[in-house]
Amino acid sequence: MFHGRAGGHNILPFLEYFNASTEHQLTFIYANDRTYFPKPDNIEYHKFSFSPFKLAKLSKVIGAEYDLIWYHGGHSALILFIFSLLRNKKSKFIFNVWNEWLIHKAKKGGIKGKMFQYGISHADIIHCNWHGTAHVLRETGWNDNIQVYYWGLQKENFTNHTVADDEETNQFIATLPEDKVKFFFPKSISPNSRHDLVIEAAEKLVKDGLTNFIVYLWLGNTNEEDLLEKYSTQINKSGLSEYVILQKHGFLSFGDMQMIWKKMDAGLQIAANEQLSTTFLEPQFYQKEIVVTDILPYRMYNEKFDLNIPLIPLESEAVYNGMKSIINGNTTSKEDLLKRYHAVNDNFNFSGNIKKIIERYQKLS
Fold it and tell me: Counting beta carbons within 10 angstroms of the beta carbon of residue 135, is it exposed (0 to 12), middle (13 to 18) or buried (19 or more)?
């Protein structure tokens, strides 16, 4: 298995599963930081590097025969291309594409686009986490074997947590105001998530005299520094420092994140494009209000699970109206919140889904 990081909430459930598994052996290749150190450690780690000596050594690891080679993400077209070239052709090669924007970027061509297309066309299976990404990929014609297998929420979400693992969680919760509507947007800063529209909406709310709210832009693992600086400047110039918080933090456990979600009133998912992230699923699971943009993955979600989550245009005025409605007390019925909860609970449990995925892939090896 390859992923850029050996840590973070996206990859951690996989590492937890395979580390605890007595049936499977995992060789994990990563390019950046390794922050997951389980005890006992049943995973064989190798760090990817472009240095000639290390790359030559690593080529032997990549070229060994495995039942499955499972490539996550694809953010680096070059690394994906290298894996596609060096991997053992007797091994089933699965490319689990995480982001729709990778496909749009590759469609524009160029060297990176062609390397990305090569990786997709030479994979035995393209694994998508949601139907929207599969739809976009099928339109390219780059690969005919595109499968959709859901991931879901990590197991700690399904257990009630009342004691924090990290003191930072207690300190953050202690700062939360009781008399304000709290919006939560836990997402990395990138062009795919429109934090700028949230800031613009907040500015309009304050100008209209609606000041009983606070937005926590909970930063992700990878944040584009130029955008982060831009948003910080935007917040300060607009006089929003007490209403919109760029919340920096350490790595917190899934249980601690649950405790934080329970203290929030609403989730924000203002996405230009994405697959089906936990930022969309978590507020539904915790039966919170949600302000979410009208993009294909969410339209498909509404249709598949017979839900009626309001979807808004990707513009600051629409975000403003969505937030304003919640601030003014226009809440979703308990029946609809419960229906959303069941959609997530019944279909997006990672522990159950990973077992099904492995069983399906084992039949192919």
Answer: middle
CATH, domain range 157-347: 3.40.50.2000
pLDDT of amino acid 10 = 84
Q: Do 2-152+350-364 and 157-347 come out as alike in CATH topology? A: yes
- The domain spans of the chain are 2-152+350-364, 157-347
Blockwise average pLDDT, block size 10, the chain, 365 residues? 83 92 90 81 89 84 92 88 91 90 90 93 95 94 95 96 96 97 96 96 98 96 91 96 95 95 98 92 98 96 96 98 97 97 97 93 77
State the pLDDT at residue 365: 58
Q: For residues 253 and 264, is the Cβ–Cβ distance under 8 A? A: no
Name which CATH class applies to 2-152+350-364: alpha beta
